[in-house]
UniProtKB/TrEMBL annotation:
Organism of provenance: Tagetes erecta (African marigold)
PANTHER family per UniProt: F-BOX DOMAIN-CONTAINING PROTEIN (PTHR33736:SF12), F-BOX PROTEIN-RELATED (PTHR33736)
Superkingdom field: Eukaryota
Matching SUPFAM superfamilies: F-box domain (SSF81383)
Protein name, as recorded: F-box protein
Coiled-coil residue windows: none
Length: 363
């Protein structure tokens, strides 16, 4: 290594991806020293997240600690290790006598988190080709703590709001030229599902949330789809679901929530000549164990908490925690239904007993 010039070593390192560059920094002292160069990590980030090429995003990343820190925060995916420990007996019921202050938690803590503190950096790829890059500054339409945002379900729609310094406000389309299979008709697609399978296998989503005040960032997406529905709500719609499991301890009763990133494509043309899909919707919501959407007030606290939770470079662990959450969620719903059925039976038996008692009394 001592015989190689520093320029040649630098030229080698700048061709590496992030994971390989991190490994190379452990190989020798010269690589370790050179790998601290911010330009190397800027190249890595711009290659993986094209949104970071924007001047305003570059300035933001520099303010929160630099590109190396940004990569180490956002490349690993969020892993919630407490999902497997959660059972039906741990799920608390919402007590009717619960006061508003007790339900919403500490107001002082909420006041320390502002919607304007958050920035969303979103990149969509299809078969390693970037098809959409957008940035949203703040939480759109969050007009104040005491307004509708605090108590209404939290939701961010990517294509409903124009970006600062971004002319691309939608119109994202995939075609045969991008690698889509040729579909002769929707009837054929309904039978073989070839277009749906190609879309699921090829699409990738990164949704990074940055807190400018706390100078922290995290990727809330699962990168690859967790599931979806084809031909819903219409036969030309394809709905894909990404997300992660976020901690919500001391924020809401169920202690954890699901970050739901819903992406919808619509078939704009399907013939023997051309097949094209248009990205019509991409949004973020937070849902609890019962499937109810979390309000804006609690969502800000959850997002702030998520920036400090456990992460892993093993994508399978992140996917496993999401699937395990869905399994636990289904078990809780089934157990709750059984519990409610038992209560219904008790009410029916009680009603019959009262009826029989009254009949015998009057006879």
């Amino acid at each position: 290594m001592t015989t190689l010039s520093s320029d040649l070593c630098y030229d080698i390192l700048k061709r590496l991806d992030g994971a390989t560059l991190a490994s190379a920094s452990c190989a020798c002292a010269s690589f370790s020293s050179m790998s601290k160069e911010e330009r190397l990590w800027e190249n890595v980030c711009s290659s993986m997240w094209p949104s970071t090429n924007r001047d305003d995003v570059k300035k933001l990343i520099s303010q929160i600690g630099g590109f190396k820190k940004f990569y180490s925060d956002c490349f690993p995916l969020i892993v919630n290790k407490n999902v497997s420990e959660f059972t039906w007996s741990d799920y608390p019921e919402y007590a009717e006598e619960l006061t508003e202050a007790e339900y919403y938690g500490d107001f002082d803590e909420f006041q320390s988190v502002s919607p304007s503190d958050f920035v969303s950096i979103v990149d969509i790829r299809y078969k390693d080709k970037t098809i959409c890059s957008k940035v949203i500054w703040g939480i759109p339409n969050a007009n104040g703590f005491n307004g509708w945002f605090s108590n209404c379900p939290f939701r961010i729609d990517l294509f409903s709001f124009s970006d600062r310094g971004d002319d691309n406000t939608g119109g994202v389309t995939l075609s045969v030229a991008d690698g889509l299979p040729l579909v002769t008709s929707m009837e054929r697609e309904r039978k073989d599902g070839k277009l749906w399978q190609e879309l699921r296998d090829g699409i990738r989503l990164s949704w990074i949330v940055v807190n400018t005040k706390a100078k922290k960032a995290a990727n809330l997406s699962s990168w690859s789809p967790l599931g979806g529905q084809r031909h819903w709500p219409t036969e030309k719609d394809f709905l894909l679901r990404f997300g992660s499991i976020l901690p919500a301890k001391d924020i809401i009763p169920c202690q954890m929530v699901e970050c739901i990133l819903a992406m919808k494509f619509q078939v704009s043309e399907a013939s023997g000549i051309e097949t094209s899909l248009e990205l019509s919707e991409l949004c973020m919501q937070l849902g609890d164990m019962e499937g109810a959407h979390v309000n804006g007030r609690n969502s800000l606290l959850v997002l702030n908490e998520a920036l400090s939770c456990d992460r892993s470079k093993n994508y399978n662990l992140a996917l496993e925690s999401c699937h395990l959450y869905s399994k636990v969620q289904s078990e809780i719903k089934e157990e709750k239904m059984r519990y409610e059925n038992r209560l219904d039976k008790l009410w029916i038996l009680g009603g019959i007993s009262v009826f029989v008692t009254l009949c015998r009394y009057f006879m």
